[in-house]
Specification:
The complex is a heterodimer of chains A (114) and B (202).
Chain A lengths: L9 H47 L4 H49 L5
Chain B lengths: L1 H20 L10 H23 L11 H24 L10 H12 L1 H6 L7 H10 L12 H23 L4 H26 L2
Helix pairs in contact in B: 2-3, 2-8, 3-7, 4-6, 7-8
The chains are: A mainly alpha (114), B mainly alpha (202).
Chain lengths: 114, 202
């Protein structure tokens, strides 16, 4: 059995993993930034609408309090959503690195282990 | 000989790694039932709010009408089902640690100052609004308990309940008021759908 041990050098393995992980991280970060921006804008827009409604008499003080409670709840939901996006991105990073190892190892060993 | 042992060692280290750990998962799987259910809820809610605005002066637009009562009863039950379903899918994890909501929201407030300035707030004072948002983080909140999907769905549930409370208080939903409260509930549901799509597209 011919095994290319040079290909299993830890430095080369790390480079391969890092490159795959970096790609996954970049695309995940784009999604995180975009999602945070959308939700921040929504919160600000709703607060403005509530302010206008109070000003025009469409909403009284207790209405405004309840509406602001709803906006607060949405901030919590947005934080939870972004947490999940970050966790899924972390999954992608780890899985991309593992996939890179698989390719290098299968090539070095000379037959597919997986 | 040394090379032989290196190969054997590598085989016994890497094979289990490959066999057992080729994919890791930190978030529960995508749920098509939840995704479709939320999308349907989003449409139904928007249609309901629009209709209430159109019939605000008529009997069917009043909170006590059969149509309105049935709408809330039906959708509250659906949302409660979503929450229970999400709890079952992942019982182990918690999403937001006790101080995370407060710290997260305070950071959010600090970073939105510029955005609020651009939006010409009616309060006329960006700092005042930022402080209002910061106050959102004070105190613990039962809504924050559970895995992230549960937290998000509990927000949908809580905001639906507040919408019902406001509808009862005012007796009807005017087009303007309905747009605000329906818009906030729509935001809640949109966040929940986006959460499912994140899992779907992983």
């Amino acid at each position: 059995m011919s095994v290319n041990l040079q290909a299993l050098d830890t430095g080369k393995l790390f480079t391969s993993m890092f490159s795959a992980a970096e790609g996954a991280a970049k695309s995940g970060w784009v999604d995180i930034k975009s999602s945070v921006r959308i939700e921040l804008k929504a919160v600000a827009t709703r607060i403005r609408e509530i302010g206008k409604a109070v000003k025009t008499g469409e909403a009284d003080a207790s209405d405004a309090k309840l509406l602001m409670k709803m906006v607060k709840n949405n901030v919590i939901a947005a934080l939870a959503m972004v947490t999940n996006i970050v966790l899924v991105t972390a999954e992608k990073i780890v899985n991309a690195a593992l996939k890179a190892i698989k390719q290098v190892v299968n090539t070095a060993i000379g037959f597919p282990i997986m | 000989m040394k090379r032989y042992y290196q190969i054997i060692l590598m085989f016994f280290v890497i094979t289990p790694l490959m066999a057992g750990c080729l994919t890791v998962r930190f978030v529960e799987p995508y749920d098509a039932v939840l995704d479709e259910g939320l999308t349907s809820l989003q449409g139904n809610t928007a249609a309901f709010v629009a209709r209430m605005g159109a019939v605000q002066s008529k009997p069917e637009g009043q909170f006590n009408s059969v149509e309105v009562q049935e709408f809330y009863a039906r959708n509250e039950a659906i949302i409660a089902g979503f929450v229970e379903r999400a709890k079952i899918l992942d019982t182990d994890k918690s999403c937001l640690p006790a101080n995370f909501v407060g710290d997260g929201i305070k950071k959010l407030a600090d970073n939105t100052a510029e955005l609020l300035t651009d939006l010409n707030m009616p309060y006329g004072d960006v700092e005042g609004v930022a402080k209002t948002i910061q106050s959102f983080g004070d105190g613990s909140d039962e809504i924050s308990v559970g895995n992230c999907t549960v937290v998000i769905l509990k927000v949908v549930q809580a905001n639906y309940s507040i919408m019902k409370t406001l509808h009862k208080k005012k007796g009807k939903l005017s087009p303007v008021f309905g747009q605000i409260v329906g818009g906030i509930v729509g935001d809640s549901i949109r966040i929940a759908i986006k959460n499912e799509l994140t899992k779907k597209n992983r």
